[in-house]
Specification:
alpha/beta, Aspartate Aminotransferase, domain 1, Aspartate Aminotransferase, domain 2, 2 domains, seven-stranded mixed sheet, four-stranded antiparallel sheet
Length: 407
Amino acid sequence: MTGTGQQLYYFDNYASTRTDPRVVEAMLPYFSERYGNSNSRSHGFGWAAEEAIDLGRERVANLIGAKAAEVLFTSGGTESCNLAVFGVARMYAEKGKHIVTTAVEHRAVMDPIRALEREGWEVTYLPVDQTGLIDIDALKGAIRDDTTLVSVIFGNNEIGTIQDSAAIGAVCKEKGVIFHLDACMGLDTEVIDVDAHGVDLLSMSGHKIYGPKGIGALYVRRRRPRVRLQPMMLGGGQERGMRHGTLNTPGIAGMGMAAELCRLERDADKVRMTALRDRMYKAFMELDEVYLNGHPTQRLPGALNVSFNFIEGESLMMGMPDIAVSSGSACTSATLEPSHVMRALGVGEDLVHTSIRFSLGRFTTAAEVDHAIEQCMGSANKLRDMSPLWEMFKEGVDMSTIEWKHD
Ligand SMILES: *Cc1c(COP(=O)(O)O)cnc(C)c1O
């Protein structure tokens, strides 16, 4: 990409992915020719839109082993997660007001749950181990008679760790509680089958799987159990009354195509991305004091969140201005506050600010990876050469004995 006139290399696929050109192609007719409202039942413009939506629904359902009637469309992953959390909590409030979730959720789940907590719900936040995984026995122990919802992130957007969704689903089935899986990350490379994994609600986002931004989907189980949701907004009666508003036909056509491409290409993409990602990690490991954040193997293939000890992540990023990455530790790039995910992993204060998140995607090439390796290693070596702390460390000074002088 040449946004500022200079070549940029994209390693921020977990923030958003490029829309696949085949997806763009599939969307175009629904802007320019077939622009009707799918609710218009009296003419061909409406029918054309409805047909596109039916196909999109079918394709999204196919990706996760669901029935088309169980998929509803939203404005994105955030809305899907909000609808799942608020929708279940409020619909089943009479049964109980206890929710189980994890310490490493995306804010699209964490913030609605915090809001419910302020409204009187009780929440159990399951801790994770240093690789980012929850403990299944701890989950079992956390579910109570008044628990209505278990909400867990599938692939973590900061560190890539993949929770054991099938085991979580089995526990939820056994205990008879509704299981929401935030699968915004990972459907481009991992196989999730809603029946095999015991999932009752599953959130998806278009722009994380090479579809457009501003479109998402929510799978809502219809049988055993039939899950009901209180809608967040009211209106025209679309989406079985759970999500009102005129449907985004181009977005749905795009999301459908994106889902179809994932289904057809995820295995090959996974193999290629894993190889490129591992090549990158291996190169970084040639430097001393490099640590991987996340699970060593049970991890999304595009995820490489690494801490370069004694190097500020922000400085490292400034040293490689043509590589588009995210700071691995900051909650959002706008704040330098360490993220709740890094804190939950127990990453030490000294290492937390040294992490960088590289995220690879379908369009990442070997040449781009090699360029990023070269830039990052060069920047890291330069910063360490200038660092008195690094020099002391290399001389064998026990860093924990240093008394820092504050003034
Ligand atoms: C991106 C993301 C979301 C939010 O999706 P949007 O479509 O950007 O609103 C939710 N959960 C996870 C895990 C994500 O990665």
